[in-house]
Records
---
Amino acid sequence: MDFKKFRKRSPWILHYNTGSCNGCDIEILACLAPKYDVERFGILNRGNPKQSDILLVTGPVTKRAKERLLRLYFEMPEPKVVVAVGACACSGGVFRHMYNVENGVDKVIPVDVYVPGCAARPEAIIDGIVRALEILKEKGKEVELPHWCSAQVKPPVNRVKLLDRCLEELHGRR
Amino acid sequence: MGKRITVPFGSQHVALPEPVRFVFQTENEKIVDVEVDVGYVHRGIEKACATKFKYMQVGYVVARVCGLCAISHTLGYVTALERLMGVEVPKRALYLRLLVSELDRIHSHLLAMGHTAEVAGYENLFMQTFRHRELVMEMLELLTGNRVQFDFACPGGVNRDLTPEVEKVLREKLKVLEEKALWLRDVYENDFSLALRWKGTGVVTEEMAKEMNVVGPPARAAGLKTDVRAEFDYLPFKEVGYRMVVLKGGSIYERNLVRALEVLNSIEMCWNILDGLPEGDIKVPVKGLPEGEMFVRIEAPRGELFYYIRGSKKLILDRVRIRVPTFANIPVMKELFVGMDYADVPATVISFDPCLSCTAR
């Protein structure tokens, strides 16, 4: 059976806050609520990374949230799409070059869609998610690694080992 | 007695919009020990305010401490700065600040109420509350130009005036909102299953509140008469019909009821502000450099917010210290959890309306 066709009909969202000011988070909540209602695209918010297809990340990625973010990213099954929501998730925003932040989500994990705005408007977030759905449709099953990671992956992938390897490299970089 | 089981709650959890980590040690269903970790979102804003940004810019940076009570943080900073430099703010600007701060309180309270309903398993009410909250967001957008991060207050006044066209729409929307808020108050007060779930859960007694220094709606729900709006004169609250809402009981039910009643009071204040808005300038220029130190207390939607600034005739301040309401409420949360059923934990956490990006900064 060809699941590719149906994949974009029921994407589930995983939302993680890596140090944003809550502004984008409440806009994401507003997206799930009646007026904007992303559920019409079959989108549900589920807290479980193993069942999710879209990772919505807000915030400039603090040093402590970095490892959790990577862990969540590796726990999600392929194909998956990462959407960076808000100015600080895209580039660090007003928090850029503060001592405890990493200046954007793409410094840690690969990002597919950037949603600008401080705070990102619900319309912009919905647009970003709809674009993410198109990317999700095209994506295959191969594992995407962060640009700083030098690990080689061959199927079948052992996720636990891969995560350990990446974390080692992440801590080595510090 | 069963064996001890460790249950992690967070940092990523579906009931939490932001990362906080609780590690519970449980025996069967009862919690015997708990550890709290709030530091996931620490960004270093206080340090950056004292090294990187000029004193006129800091107001916009501290607004990004928290998106839910953005106006409170800006207000705290600009009030402290104005008092330090002896700036006389025009009356119209004060009233406009008060209007935005009350609208912000309404949307924050509605968010907290809706979220508690969702965690109690009442998704319908969550959706209804959020639907009515959108009205406030539309009003804020009309008034300030942005839905969440307003950047409305600035040193010396406000950035945007209220035009007659906007005022007309605001009045229409406020009328609808008042109806909906009355309905919501009715549901949160009288709904049978909600009362069954919430009454007597997570009780903070008055002595406990006094001892642990609880602030904001949780303190007022416990019967403690504390509200910075009445204690510290930073905006003309008394002129626009402010009343303190105090209830007895201190469980989740009362905390939400306090919020619902405060929403009604805030709407009343908004009516009074719109009716009696003084004419005049909205901004005066701020000149000179800050010297000396000043502290200000503000009532944010979650409770007392404390700002301390110190300057020594330089463009960059020496110190900006922020003490936020959630930080004051965490000790009592920890106390509450011991001896509680694990199933009540998410509802209790959310009913305190924790704001971790405030706490960690």
---
Amino acid sequence: MTKKLTLMSILTAVALIIFIIESLIPIPIPIPGIKLGLANAVTLFALFLVSQNNQAEQKNQIKQTLPLKQTKITQIYYLSTFNVFAILICRILLGSLFTGRMTAFILSLSGGILAFLAQVLLKRLVTNKQIWAVGAVGAVFHNIGQILAAIIITGTPAIVTYLPILIIAGIITGSITGLIAQITLQRIKQ
Amino acid sequence: MKSNKFWLITFGVLIISCITVIFFLQKTPASYANIYHNNILIDSVDLSNTNEIWFRQTVNNAEQYNQILVEDGRIRIQAANCPDKFCIHQGWVSSGLIPIVCLPHRLVIQLQNNKNNDYDAIVG
């Protein structure tokens, strides 16, 4: 139990640090909402830490090896969807508090939750080799969620014209983020 | 959904369709800029005049301002004290494709072809 809590705290801290440092990097493109969503790499990593293909195996292995004290690392670190969601919410909350922009909080929250839903749904249909695609889809949905929130806040539907550019940028940055998570998971499982 | 090729094709199609959408939307001409605050029209500016507009309001004892510059067919926000400064970074806008938005100040500048003479409110 405490091992899971430690793991979650570490992942939240890493995501938070990535988020804060990333907010200090100026992007030369003048479109609001363009950002490298690097913190999403942590979310993807946590989400795919135990993929669906391994889940049944690992639960059996945990039951079998409970009487023994020695277990492999990958067998203990299992994060449920709710755990990953908690990490996401904490990162968004603390991130917008520390960066000092509460206006960004609502946008980040709506984008993050929508992206999280999309990634969770996609996780069940995808093997471990396609995490980059899940990341790209997540980034696209993040941008969609942010634009929806911006439209609701300002009441001008014209903001939706940003969507095509943001979708392209989302696919590119999301693929990079997902690739990072995918490679990290591959290295860890060795 | 289990092959990389499937996702490459999907994203490629999506990117191509977005690029075509962008190309089609570039052809919106604009000669007037309508400035909205909280979705209420406060000013309608002719883009061919060189002009400087200040938008000020006091919210929660903090003064917010945006300095809007109109010049020879294009418009931009020159200075503002919003925390993001996204509106300033957007730079010059001359087509009706994308509005200039200052989200913390609830300011939207939309370029259109028709001059809106029915102001909902005028902010001094």
